[in-house]
Amino acid sequence: MSGDSDDDFVGGDANADNCYPSPVGDIKKGGYIVYKGRPAKVIETLSSKTGKHGHEKMRITAIDIFNENKYETIQPSSHKISVPEVDRSEYQLIDLTDDGFCSLMLSNGSIREDLRLPDGDIGDAIRKQYENEKILLLSSTKAMGLEQIMSFRQMQD
């Protein structure tokens, strides 16, 4: 696990498009925050009581939504933290190129070809199912200008 109490969730890219400030005290498990310019999903929050030295503190543990790195920090609950807008989309897989790009059909019938098949087990499973002529729906997550295919399921006939 990386992170010290000095770490700053707002970090380098706090003013990125599609982000908004929120009080640290309002952050809940299952929500999202920005950690050093990366979108992360909160997996745990713990708060400490106000002591003789001032503010209530919140300990936040979060996982990067794209690379699954785990982060932890402690912040005063009255401070602001940057929260990214996270969107999920589902596309029908039409074709896979040799260089790993997917041809995807959107719900309105248009095609996009700018998403790469993910590396690892998910990408291998998608390729195998596609080669077996299965009709697949791919789910992607988009946040802070990044988008990645995260999961898939077989479309019912």
From TrEMBL:
SUPFAM superfamilies in the record: Nucleic acid-binding proteins, Translation proteins SH3-like domain
Compositional bias segments (type: Acidic residues): 1-10
Keywords linked to the UniProt accession: Hypusine, Initiation factor, Protein biosynthesis
UniProt cross-references to InterPro entries, sorted A to Z: IF5A-like, IF5A-like_N, IF5A_C, NA-bd_OB-fold, Rib_uL2_dom2, Translation_prot_SH3-like_sf
GO biological process: one example: positive regulation of translational elongation
Post-translational modification: eIF-5A seems to be the only eukaryotic protein to have a hypusine residue which is a post-translational modification of a lysine by the addition of a butylamino group.
Region (Disordered): 1-20
Molecular function GO labels: ribosome binding; RNA binding; translation elongation factor activity; translation initiation factor activity
Primary role: Translation factor that promotes translation elongation and termination, particularly upon ribosome stalling at specific amino acid sequence contexts. Binds between the exit (E) and peptidyl (P) site of the ribosome and promotes rescue of stalled ribosome: specifically required for efficient translation of polyproline-containing peptides as well as other motifs that stall the ribosome. Acts as ribosome quality control (RQC) cofactor by joining the RQC complex to facilitate peptidyl transfer during CAT tailing step.
Cited NCBIfam families: eIF_5A
Family label: Belongs to the eIF-5A family.
Name by which UniProt lists this protein: Eukaryotic translation initiation factor 5A
Species the sequence originates in: Streblomastix strix
Origin organism lineage: Eukaryota, Metamonada, Preaxostyla, Oxymonadida, Streblomastigidae
